[in-house]
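Spend some time on this chain, tokens included, and walk me through the fold:

. . .
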Amino acid sequence: MRVGFLYPEMETLGIQYLSSVLKTRGHETKLFFDPQLFDDTITQNQPLKLKFDYKDKLISEIDKFRPDVIVFSVLSTTCEWAFHLSLTIKAKMDIPIVFGGIHPTLVPEEVMRNSFIDYAIVGEGEYALLELVESGFNKNKIPQIKNVCYKKNEVVVCNPLRAPIADLDTLPFPDKELFYEKMPYLKKSYTIVTGRGCPHGCSYCCNGYLNKIYNRGYLRRRSAENVIAELDWAVKKYGIKHVYFDDSTFTYDRNWLSNFAVHYKKIIGLPCFCWVYPTDVDEGLIGIFKSLNCRAVEMGVESLDERVREEIFGRVYSNSDVENALKLFRKNRIFCVVDNIKGFSDDPEKEVMDLVEFYNENRPNKIYVFE
């Protein structure tokens, strides 16, 4: 079958893995990419947005490709974009539309109430999508496909959830060509994940919900050898110059990380970036980072009000832990970005001043504030 994927604004590993699995079974895939120029999460300009709107071009490209199914990977921040485009596609083509990703996983029934969406996939999608495609969308087979939601007599039915993939090493490497064809500059920094899930259950993050629906069985990690094999393949195929580890928390398993760092230093050696958790940061981690040639990190602080941080966000550590981490990064010249969520304090003015004073004394390289 011919499978068309739609995605806006940036690269996503989710679609790359879906495509790789489909290709191993002989299916053809193609990405229809909307750069959302002047209408992304950072820059919005209505006149320029209209001038550089890609939707008509996307519809024309889809029509030429003649896919058997259209698949959207949807975040809550992109659902309106996906809804609008799905409605446009349905008005012009008689084609099944599938929604997957974290937004349909969180609210599948709400997503499926839209008449222009035929199927939703909850949770991990590689083998659910493969089975759905290979069913030929046969109504008699779909009730047996786990993770799939469909409509029966206008009623939304969600099939049971399958267990998460036990051995991530069995997955093919992600299909990078989908996005590299559209954005060749992505080859400079190779985005990769060494596992799936997160040991933490932060209230604002999808990993907390995934931990819940999978009964905390969602956290898994690839072998160090498998990750190194992918990176070695990427170096030889694309000549990558940098590695971007996109795991939600890269630093949670010190034993795995120590073993991985030995292989990485010997075989790869490229500068890299990763996401860290404050309580993971100590002199031992810094030593591992030196082996990894880690030049930059991003760390969620979220709030300096420890009550807000623990009771609302579900993150348990002290401001001293954050201070210690920042000192170590600064001492070892590791570029550090910190994330903060504003607006949950009982005293908004004090909240801002606390941030200013704390970061004036404990300086990161960049500060992000979300509200």
Summary: The two ends are 43 Å apart (CA to CA). The longest helix spans residues 224-238.
